[in-house]
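Box 3.1. Reading complex inputs
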Amino acid sequence: MLVLGVSHKTIALDERERFSVPKDALPALLSSLRSEGTIAEAVCLSTCNRTEFFVRPEGVSLGDANLGAGSVSMQNANESLRKALSRISGIKNVDRMLYQRAGGDAIRHIFRLAASLDSLVVGEPQILGQLKDAFEAASSNGLIGGQLGKCIMHSFHVAKRVRSETRIGEGSVSISSVAVDLARGVFGSLDNASVLLVGAGEMAEAAARSLAKDASRIRVCNRSIERAAELAAKFQGSASTLDALEQELLLADVVVTGTAATHYVVTQELAARVMKARRGRTLLFVDIAVPRNVDPAIHGINNVYVFNIDDLQQETERNAGSRSRAVAEAERIVDLELESFMRWTKSLHVQPVLLAIRAKTKAILTTELERTLSGKLSHLSEADRAVLAKMMDSATNKLLHAPTVRLRESSDGVDPLQLAHIAEQLFDVQGVSFHENQVRESTHQRAHQQALDPNDAAHASHHHGDHQGQKNDPKGNLQ
Amino acid sequence: MSFFLVDVFFGLAVVLYGGLAIRHVVFLFGEANAPATRNRDGVRDGSRDGSREVGKTADGTAIATTRWFLAAALIHACYIVTGSLLFRVCPITGVAFPLGVAGFSAACIYLVARMRYNVDALGAFVAPLSLTGLLASRFLTTDTGAHVRSTVLPFHILASCIGVTLFSMASFAAVLYLVQERRLKKKQLQGLFRRLPPLDALDRVEHRFLLWGFPLFTIGIVSGTLLNLAAGDIARTGLAYVTWVLIAGVLLLRAMLGWRGKRAALGTLAGFGFTLLLLGFYLLRNSVERGG
């Protein structure tokens, strides 16, 4: 398991916005990742605060919690993701900006992220919806399998548990509420203020919901008039297209921008023209879009104030302190859930052995039953034979129930590979785990490369070794 | 007994203004980490942190402050009235009582402004201003206005007095505006920003004070021109007109070209600078004349 990406914790907004992946570009990105053959499962989460990939590299099981970032499969997946992030951002060397988590750390990261513990605004609810959207996108592109899928699904459960068992959501300062507070700081009462929403996405709607409580007028300006009208109707506001933006800016006091545009929707020239026509009336921009919609240089114009997502961070951090107890409780839940999930991932090692044991047992019993039915019990009717077959299945289940449970449970704290081997030997089955194959092959490749060129072995194995190995990998062995 | 009553009013007014001044200064600078936010009326509110009680307390404090200010202004008025009766002088002539009237009018203007605008923090300026006026009227001069004979003079003093008070309040609003504007431009949304009045309210109240003060100041300098020309005081008249032109310019530029915010605040401060010069000139001249 590997997590690689950028977030509000690693880079500032002006760099972060370059990594933003528009919704419509996501399928192509996921397809290109899949075509590289280094990644078995992947989710790409791109929000205003982060662009992250959660991936299960080809040939790596989720149960390989201890498989660090140094393994060949991990390195290949890592390389693919770095290239992808480099392509998205147009930045050649993205290494200094990225952070990565591998194995159990990666799973913990996903759980914390879903529980809104890694958010800019700790406790905000939007991240769960965004993660679900990312999951859906990956799923519809065929990049979700039984392992990463299970991990993401479990993160939803963690998020729900954290939200219901702690007070992390209470009093959380969402970006929308900070925008409202900022607007009050500038205008005092918003009773006579006119609020303009540029863009009609989820964030704009959330902001409108907060502002609608106070503001007298809500106007929505959007690329699509239908969506603008739909949102405006919810707040008894008016709608217009982006063509009317300049006229709308003349009437507004607070402007919340949240379009998916990759360029500035409000340029410095436009703002200068508008301010001249407004005769200096104060104008507040709250730019919640990433990439930004409002040219930051506009902040230099008299009586115009531009605040973006990062500017609001100190405000939200102020609130974080008052909920440190809830955060500590949430972290404890994440730890417990991680422990439980890791137990499940470890059981993945014994899963093929268990399947092999079950198959072998069933095969032996079926053979013996058929032999008996064709001999001494050949007079039995079809109905009786069916009853006998059912009895055999039931006996198999009862017989293997205890070993199955013991193997799964005892895998906790014990080297799962070792346990799988012991079970294989005891029952004389071939359930060799995929992990072992992978490790064996990567070791072989490294040895081979070292024999060829001892100085460049690491580099060579990084770029070529695992591709060779993958041809022979029993893909999906553990799925 | 009458003198004692005047002293009681004086003492009570001093204590109340002093207490209010300390309360406002502590409010502005003494609660660096207080989780203050604004509610829909711009009053400090902690409700966003899940504590409705904090919000109620903040509202309660604001109401209590208004009541104390009202009490201080009423006692101040009692002091002026009883003092005037005792000394048998009109309170708007001479130097002593007008200083007290200026302090009293500052408190009244503040109370009126608070009814309409979220400008609680102006109290940090108004309370010391009223206190200074009160103390000055008692200790700075012994002039009781007995030398005044002109009928124009009371109008001149009253109009100038309230006009200058309004300008001084406008200039304090301008200072607060510049502080708020600077914090917003630097994106510092914590601390003082949360305790000062909203930016737009400061701009509007500053404009209102200038608008209210300008006609009074105009009456003051027109009446002053008549008095000064009679007295041959050309320099003071000239300085008064420069001040008038400056403040008229600030109002005109705002109305014609939309010079609001920072430009208007700087213009107001420049105008008030000249008003202070004028006031200093007047006090200096007066004390020289008294000394002579």
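In summary: Chain A has a mean pLDDT of 80.
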